[in-house]
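The data are quoted verbatim for reference:
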Amino acid sequence: MSQVKSLKVTLVKSLIGTKKNHRLSAQGLGLRKVNQSVIVDDTPSNRGMINTINYLVKLEG
């Protein structure tokens, strides 16, 4: 069986003043506060949300 790879995503900039779909992408990843980190599975849907808000987050593999 293959293991699901995980990613650590950290919100480094505030969501204030961003587009609504960018705020919803951060919420979908589980990010609420600046400097909050979450570990998510490396799936195409999560990658899409991360790519949408790449200027707000820091990604660690």
